[in-house]
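Ticket #258: bound-state structure for adenosine monophosphate.
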Amino acid sequence: MTPNTPRVFESVSEFIAFRKTISPDITIGFVPTMGALHSGHASLLKKSASENDFTVLSIFVNPTQFNEKSDFTNYPKTWNEDLEVATASEVDFILMPTYEQMYPDQYRYKLSENDFSKKLCGGSREGHFDGVLTIVMKLLNIVSPNCAYFGEKDYQQFKLIHDMAASFFMTVEVIPCPTLREDSGLAMSSRNVRLSGEGKTKAGLIYKIITESKLASEASEKLTSHGFKVDYVEDYYNRRFVAAFLEGVRLIDNVEIK
Ligand code: AMP
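RESOLUTION: The complex was predicted; output attached.
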């Protein structure tokens, strides 16, 4: 059976009005994204579709979580393909709000966390997680899902959102989903399109090196010797986290420490 095309909402108020018409015994799964969907996103959407009556996908490139304006403006936009991925992944509703709708206060109010968000990606991307937590809180309030799905590829983000939900007594269940990888081991990411073919193969070394090295410092040295510009390799919560540049592209990954 061919899946139905999702219903698209470009208006937050229309979505909120529609949300009120859904009976409380219907379960809703939610997957927030910035679009440029790939198989990693599709795996979250399919998990949500298999565990809930309805799945809501949001596509919003959130300016408050970008440090580099060019990174924000160059963020890939692939609407036609996104709609295909969403349809094939059995998404029911897509929410695509504008900046004005999401930030009627011009970011006067924001949410921040004062410990783990300052480490790893938070160390080199000031205010990044304030932007992430703020937009996720807004989206969760709009969508009011039973479950929300986040990729372990961005484990620091998952952990911060998971703990935010607990801290604020939110009823949503924040669910982690495993990282989808290319055959080379490279974690799938919307940013990978900026790598050359050779770069994509070489980037597979990140996963191999952080998995095989005994110490974070050893992994960092090995990556440097292979031509990566390492931002960090550090261990927290029984996981090893890495951010490294290749061909000017910032790549992140993490693995469980066995
Ligand atoms: P993004 O559009 O990059 O903000 O990602 C939206 C969601 O998809 C986040 O929860 C990401 O962690 C998740 N995601 C991105 N890439 C992957 C991947 N390779 N495997 C699993 N989840 C992913």
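RESOLUTION NOTES: The chain has a mean pLDDT of 97.
TICKET STATUS: resolved
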